[in-house]
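Page 47, continued from p. 46.
Same chain as before, 111 aa.
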Amino acid sequence: MGYRNLLATFTFPEHAYACEQALRGAGFDVVQVDYVPSTPPDALNHAPAVEWGRQGYQPEVLDDKWTAASAWDHQGPPGLIDGESYLLTAVVPEEDARRAETLIRQHGGRL
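Result:
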């Protein structure tokens, strides 16, 4: 069974946190919302760490063990809106990815 990292941006914090709760309510344990301040793209040089919950540290299963950094580049995160935003990171089983993506879109997230 494989896993996918899903990254979504939100303009409003209440939408991001409502989506986080909806994902957790749907059984997705590895979900986190991070605030991304308004900064020049080259000033953002880190990726948000996710809590692994019951997944634990499984290097043989998860390609990107500690962060969602594989989706970032040195020019800054692609797709982030101008100004402040909220970044939702979720690690979901491959077979449930579409269901999680649907929930994210329903809450206004941009994948």
